[in-house]
Amino acid sequence: MSEASVDPDKRMSSLYYVGLQPDQSNIEAAIDSDGVLSAVTDGYDVLSVPITNAHFRSGISRISQPVSDPAIVPPVAPPIYSDVNFAPNTTYAQHIFGMAAQWIELDSPDPRIAAVSAQVLKHELSFAYFCGLSYVIVPGPTRRNNVALYAESLNAALAAVPHINVIVHLAMAETGIEEPSGSDVQAPVDAMSIWDIWNSIRTICDYSSRLSVGLQVPAKLPPQTVVSRWFAEPITVLFISAKIFLSNPKGYPVLSKAHQYLLFKYMKMKPYTILQDVREATQIRTSSKLPSKQDEKAYLIYIRHLHTILPAPTAVEKFGRGYQDYLQNPLQPLADNLESGTYEVFEKDPVKYAQYEKALFQALSDRGTSPNDQPLVVAVVGAGRGPLVGCALRASDKAKVPIFVYAVEKNPNAYTYLLQRKELEWQNNVEVVFADMRNWNPVRKIDVMVSELLGSFGDNELSPECLDGAQRVLKSTGIMIPQSYTSHFIPAMSPKIFSTIKSQNREDIVNTPYVVMLQAVDLLAMEIKQAWEFRHPSPYLGANSKSSAVTHERRYDGLRMDDSVSNDHNNRHVKARFSVENRGIMHGFVGYFESVLYGDVELSTRPDTINKKSKDLVSWFPIWFPISSPLYVPDDSEIEISIWRKTDNRKVWYEWSIETFVLVPGPRLGSNDGDPMPPESSARSNGSSTKRVRLGCSKLHNPGGKYSSMSL
Amino acid sequence: MSEASVDPDKRMSSLYYVGLQPDQSNIEAAIDSDGVLSAVTDGYDVLSVPITNAHFRSGISRISQPVSDPAIVPPVAPPIYSDVNFAPNTTYAQHIFGMAAQWIELDSPDPRIAAVSAQVLKHELSFAYFCGLSYVIVPGPTRRNNVALYAESLNAALAAVPHINVIVHLAMAETGIEEPSGSDVQAPVDAMSIWDIWNSIRTICDYSSRLSVGLQVPAKLPPQTVVSRWFAEPITVLFISAKIFLSNPKGYPVLSKAHQYLLFKYMKMKPYTILQDVREATQIRTSSKLPSKQDEKAYLIYIRHLHTILPAPTAVEKFGRGYQDYLQNPLQPLADNLESGTYEVFEKDPVKYAQYEKALFQALSDRGTSPNDQPLVVAVVGAGRGPLVGCALRASDKAKVPIFVYAVEKNPNAYTYLLQRKELEWQNNVEVVFADMRNWNPVRKIDVMVSELLGSFGDNELSPECLDGAQRVLKSTGIMIPQSYTSHFIPAMSPKIFSTIKSQNREDIVNTPYVVMLQAVDLLAMEIKQAWEFRHPSPYLGANSKSSAVTHERRYDGLRMDDSVSNDHNNRHVKARFSVENRGIMHGFVGYFESVLYGDVELSTRPDTINKKSKDLVSWFPIWFPISSPLYVPDDSEIEISIWRKTDNRKVWYEWSIETFVLVPGPRLGSNDGDPMPPESSARSNGSSTKRVRLGCSKLHNPGGKYSSMSL
Question: Is A445 in contact with A377 (CB distance < 8 Å)?
Fold first, then answer.
């Protein structure tokens, strides 16, 4: 492996990094520069090496004997040459992950032990930094009730030593490594407790970007909820003991199916995998005191093999590669004119236009040829570069229903492109119109109006307002495609997105919904809920649908300027209650949409319905609504999200606020929920004696559209 | 009452503002400008008047009839001349508190009613603003489970109309106004539920400075915890119905003792008191359909009378007047040289120097005259302008124990002043020394060393470090006054302090402890706990106390520069667990100190021990440790505060972090507290089946002293 290949930029490539943690017995042999070299030539990318040795420890033990007064903390001197396992060596530094002493107890209730441990950690980090190392692995806390002390020491060490990254070595859950391997007894433990400790540590350390997790993969895997939870955390290292491998019929070490799936999932995050107990496991496997290097290498080879047989990425994963957890401002196609490349990206969707074509086919078929044999009038409003014009023409051919197509576009550059396509491809069946659909006055009324104005949250690119503006030119019996769309949402945890937003420290960013290809996210609630719906043609303009076009025009032509025309019917408000089974920390909520294009032809970005309704749809990433301060929720709690879609005659915006509750045993009498009005939908209204206790609420985000809005 | 007297600046004076809310029946008569005038000449300062009238309401009722589709919201036109109760009039605007329509329901589950109500409120605020009013009273929410909707509408109205202040009219607690007056039945209601609703409203409205509370004083008062809770909130108006007055033997209306105490307490905040139901109550009291103006005025006269018989302020209240809830940076007398005025303020304390003199008297008496008849050597270290020199000389006279006093001072200006006093007052009994006590080398060793270096949190002005530095010149049998001091703390709620800090929006401010004369504060926990102790002479230097002065000097002379000399023995760490009975929101914690000057002579700023140990001590306000985000805690919860006093050889600083838990019925199994190490002090360890559920934790504040520290 060449020097260049450990360039951090290369981690975006398909390379996968595997390391070795030498057995306790042969550390000293493994850590001179030849040892590093041999491990690297053996195929490992990194070696995890204890920074200090037994000599250092014995020196510490001597000074930290209890004395009469426990408040006197002996000063710990930095390690000297004979105390450390490696020397500064720029050639190998990048191949070494330092390991802090396993015997330190930052969270010891004995103040002497805690203070000595804190000094040892600082010295070790400092030496690792001096040697040019990037990562030091620190043992996790040893008890639950002293996490603040542990985190404070970690934070002080991070502050004292620049640049170095600290990896906190943690079990996935309380069970697992404690259980004797092969045991079937699953003790009634708290599966989220280790995550909980980690969450406290990183909260106390204020989401330091230099703090991440090294996760020990246990022999017995925890429930799926725990696996998903950790997937949302910054995992730098997966530790895997060679002892948890099974032997296949040929005697080679392999992982169980469950472990394979775990690795397939976690490998997406490109952590380092560090193998432990390799010599010991090889000795057992080969029944040999001195197994060959080749026998020891079998574990490494297997991990590399697993990486080569990773399941192919889904269409969405392929499409979103490089955009994972990256915050994008939603498009404003109404206010801004898109560039050709943006259109081109959207046109690549393998599913979206197939669905549109199917919807158009069904609509044209249902409609049939008109009595006077005139072609049906189809309007593509917001035609862009014309993909829906193509869909309409193909659907017309297939349905044997002749059509005439208006392609209406307000972007002058796209308009020019459409004119060119008309000349080259479409000719007389298509008329290209340069107009804002809200002001367009065609000579003929429209039978089928088709648009692709949906955003990640459905209505967030102003589809309702645009189509309301165009509705006056639709025949009273006309069809609009899409016929309706609904917005959906669910509370979620994403330390990664939160720390990105936090690091900007700008009020506008925590008040803006972003489009994100979500990866390091854990959905906190048991189900996604619908927020609201829009239907087209709009029923709120329906009272006038039989009156003359003049009425419509008088009402809508001046939409943008005349304050007497209200857009209030496109306001929405909903408060939804989400049940949370396992505790977690809410950093925001995720928005999706579903749309009925026509009849049974639908689009969906909801992860639980996308495969049924529009598998492999890739055009939309979810939308992320951030909150300004994370809200912690315990087991068996409820999150209520209130969200508003608000409009004036110049802009549209969202506001949102969150309330949290915990459900505890107890009578409802005198509870926070003793409302004269019963709640509309009680998530667990089984009549049992459950009290709902308020835990917190957020401020109202983006009041008045102060920080983010879509211009009409 | 003259125009000038409603100048807001004058509210700091002893004037007390009383208003009248005219009875529903005679509003129309009361609200023309003559009506305002007559109320003002009748002795009221303000009149609370509904902004719109029945005519406006009937217009709204007409348009808000339910129609087929509830999503269609009728636009509400602003009120016209015949819809309002008063006209713009700059002369009287300042005497009018507008009242929003009592029939609006911002939190209605019917979206039409909610939306119409929101429009009505905006129109009313807008008209009130146009008329020059400063305050509008808005009815509180009508249900508990739609508070987010209520708050959003309020927030939108505040954003739409500039400057105007909104007063949310609320009951103190669920019981009270609902109960028939005189009833003894106390329904098992939730005493904090109304406060809880208010807390949600102002949290959602992001602690708007234009939002405050108008509190309805009920006939039956709620528990003291509720009274204290509201005292910490921004109460602009106290509403008192004349119907809750009793008649005294002469037939005059008076309030019960309990109500008097309530008013005495709340009058400190100088709210407006607005009397309601005056005509009706007068009719009943006088059994007259047409009572005289004088009879109606009896309630006003009584309130004004109450204000004149307010209990005298305590010494601390008198001393702190004008400083209530005002954040001051703690003094740094070591790093900065104080000005004479600052010394002068401290010297005014009636109690502090009496206690010092008593302590010196006892110490000198215990010590007695030395065998060789030499006077005892007393050192006043940090003598300032010399008050302790006076104490020592007086104590010496009284104890008949001759002394020689060193007055050691590092502030050159105070030194000059001391020289003058020596010449004029003290002469040969006193030697004035210009030195930092940490470097001072007197020819004689000290018998009694006395200092006044304590800060609001005890050690926060570096008393431990200064006295450690001076200890080397103390005889091995010498006495130090104070002998010891302890720091104490308790979690607290203060929306006022939080919003002051929040409005600065500076990271350093939420990471800095402030000295504050606390007023609008509610202590959340059941008891104040001790953090840590310092003792003098320091036992950690004690091992060397019998060795030569040279050893001491080698160890301490270079304290500031020589990194090999450690101040680690003055580091402290404690985690304390506080039980919280009634829910609340934590904005920070309050720190106090106690000190043993000598023997049984003590100083205390703890509110629960100050009267016993040092009544009327005024020199120290408490210290306030802020937290960056408020933490909500439900009933029966626990707050754990971890606090560190940390030092390096250049500075001393505090770090702090908070964790919160709720206690719920249930087995401990699988709880967040199933630690192998049992917690050191379980607040409710009665062995019953109580589960401790983690609710949240704060970040670590001021890590590494990054934002605030005391320089050595």
Answer: yes
